């Protein structure tokens, strides 16, 4: 089968097109013909070594075993089943829950043996992939491309919103609102949980689109008076911040949070290290949350909300699998809205 593999830590030149034997499903597994695979920061940071220190990076301490086929937001059709898998799975259109774990229900995402497809397992930058049958769920939408844009970003965003226990009528500030996780944070917080959302972006040309997704206000991080603008449009401080940016908006986030507010981060695209005056933390009684991925029950709740039309796919553009380098390069550009999707068959 045709694959794109990461051959080691480095830039996009470490992505190489090649051929690999089509995998065979083992006991409890299915073989899936990949129809679409959306791009996430996760596979880019894995390639760049951003998840670890020194020479190792990945979701596990031992680092990634190269070459590795990346890709975790996968939809496709089941074409073969292994032993102990019901034949009714054949020809089913599925979306993949993106990791395995032996953690107890509700704590799967923080188990020490959590292993991620596209990092610890070969992923969706390929024509076929194998995956445990019990981690393959019915697609929430009829379209492969539209159903592929939620798995990692959506699960991460859903878990963030549940983690801070968003309540109807609260004001939530969302950074990086034009990205995969950010645009879903906007939708989930507003359309599912009933919050008022202040979306932070760079380009205000995206304002109307973000309001269509559920944002009440849209502001630019390029403003010299961003904190004042946030407080003005909200009539005071915000209840919580959902952040994927990191250092670039960290100080502003803490400044606009109310006393007893909540700050939840799942990314650091704008800087992985920052400064924190601990007095701000304790004098304002701020609660910090670190968040990534989520549980299988949360995944099911998210898929249900998608199928009900409460969360909509936001897609910037698609690329053929052979253009994975160009796709990952484009992914890192500012100003886009939504997900980038690779198509093995295009």
TrEMBL record:
<dbReference type="InterPro" id="IPR020843">
    <property type="entry name" value="ER"/>
</dbReference>
<dbReference type="Pfam" id="PF00107">
    <property type="entry name" value="ADH_zinc_N"/>
</dbReference>
<feature type="domain" description="Enoyl reductase (ER)">
    <location>
        <begin position="10"/>
        <end position="342"/>
    </location>
</feature>
<protein>
    <submittedName>
        <fullName>Zinc-binding dehydrogenase</fullName>
    </submittedName>
</protein>
<dbReference type="InterPro" id="IPR013154">
    <property type="entry name" value="ADH-like_N"/>
</dbReference>
<dbReference type="InterPro" id="IPR011032">
    <property type="entry name" value="GroES-like_sf"/>
</dbReference>
<keyword id="KW-0560">Oxidoreductase</keyword>
<dbReference type="InterPro" id="IPR036291">
    <property type="entry name" value="NAD(P)-bd_dom_sf"/>
</dbReference>
<dbReference type="InterPro" id="IPR013149">
    <property type="entry name" value="ADH-like_C"/>
</dbReference>
<keyword id="KW-0521">NADP</keyword>
<dbReference type="GO" id="GO:0016651">
    <property type="term" value="F:oxidoreductase activity, acting on NAD(P)H"/>
</dbReference>
<dbReference type="Pfam" id="PF08240">
    <property type="entry name" value="ADH_N"/>
</dbReference>
<dbReference type="GO" id="GO:0070402">
    <property type="term" value="F:NADPH binding"/>
</dbReference>
């Amino acid at each position: 089968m045709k694959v794109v593999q990461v051959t080691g830590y480095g830039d996009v030149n470490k992505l190489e097109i090649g051929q690999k034997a089509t995998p065979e499903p083992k006991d409890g597994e299915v073989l899936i013909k990949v129809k679409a695979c959306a791009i996430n920061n996760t596979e880019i940071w894995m390639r760049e070594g951003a998840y670890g220190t020194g020479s190792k990076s990945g979701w596990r301490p031992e680092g990634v075993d190269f070459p590795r086929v990346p890709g975790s937001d996968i939809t496709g059709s089941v074409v073969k089943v292994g032993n102990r898998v019901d034949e009714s799975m054949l020809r089913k259109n599925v979306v993949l829950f993106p990791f395995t774990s032996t953690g107890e229900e509700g704590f799967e995402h923080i188990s020490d043996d959590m292993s991620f497809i596209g990092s610890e397992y070969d992923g969706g930058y390929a024509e076929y992939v194998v995956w445990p049958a019990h981690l393959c769920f019915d697609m929430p939408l009829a379209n492969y491309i539209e159903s592929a844009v939620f798995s990692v970003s959506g699960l991460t965003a859903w878990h963030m919103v549940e983690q801070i226990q968003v309540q109807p009528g609260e004001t939530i500030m969302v950074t990086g609102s034009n990205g995969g996780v950010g645009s879903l944070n906007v939708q989930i917080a507003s359309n599912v949980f009933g919050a008022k959302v202040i979306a932070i972006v760079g380009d205000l040309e995206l304002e109307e689109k973000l309001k269509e997704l559920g944002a009440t206000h849209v502001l630019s991080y390029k403003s010299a008076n961003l904190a004042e603008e946030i407080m003005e449009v909200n009539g005071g401080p915000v209840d919580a911040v959902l952040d994927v940016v990191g250092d670039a908006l960290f100080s502003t986030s803490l400044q606009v949070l109310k006393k007893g507010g909540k700050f939840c981060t799942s990314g650091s695209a704008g800087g992985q290290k920052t400064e924190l005056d601990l007095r701000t933390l304790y004098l304002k009684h701020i609660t910090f949350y670190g968040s990534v991925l989520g549980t299988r029950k949360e995944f099911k709740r998210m898929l249900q909300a998608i199928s009900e039309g409460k969360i909509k796919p936001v897609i910037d553009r698609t690329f053929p699998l052979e253009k994975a380098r160009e796709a990952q390069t484009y992914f890192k550009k500012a100003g886009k809205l939504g997900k980038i999707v690779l198509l093995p068959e295009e």
